[in-house]
Amino acid sequence: MKIEQGWEQRLAMNRRLRNALKGLTAPDAERRRKAMEPFVRATFDMFIRYLYRYLGNEVECEDVLEDVYADIWENPERLRNVTTERELLRTVYLYYMRKRLRRVYRRMNRHLYLAQKDLENLVAPELGTLEMLSRVELTQALTQALERLKARERKAIELWM
């Protein structure tokens, strides 16, 4: 029984956050404005920890969060039916944070990943003997090689050419 209550408390939102969410989704602009600061204070640590796991840079995390909070301010409707902190994090990630997080992550880590196809294009092709010789040098090398062959072998190659 005590374990169940502890679990429910962890899943349930604290009163301050629940009231801030109600204020954010209210139709009254003044009430929304007043609710934004408590919402930011109640969620900042949770969101920053989540972002930091991916970005590893606090400044980048704060930049992403600024944009996320601006989006929440402009369109808080998705948060209307949120009842737990876990649901809040999932909803904010899916609808407000994901695109920005991916964009910043790619920008920060663009040097780490190269597809195999791209890697092959970056490596200079190895030059073989044929590519390094001029046409005259190639003709001379072929003539010398043919002279070393027996008459019958030379005739077979000349017929083939």
Q: How does this structure look, described?
A:
With 161 residues, this protein is mainly α. The chain has helices at 2-11, 15-24, 29-55, 58-74, 85-108, 116-122, 129-132, 135-147, 151-160. The protein folds into two domains: 2-108, no CATH class; 124-160, no CATH class. The chain starts with a helix and ends with a helix.
| Helical percentage | over 70%
Q: What count of domains describes the coordinates?
A: 2
* Computed Rg: 34 Å
> How do the SSEs run, as a string of H and E?
HHHHHHHHH
Specify the structural class. Answer: mainly alpha
Shape: rod-shaped
GO molecular function, one term: sigma factor activity
Protein name: Sigma-70 family RNA polymerase sigma factor
GO biological process, one term: DNA-templated transcription initiation
Organism: Thermodesulforhabdus norvegica
Keywords, separated by commas or semicolons:
2 domains; mainly alpha; DNA binding; 76% helix; 9 helices; 161 residues
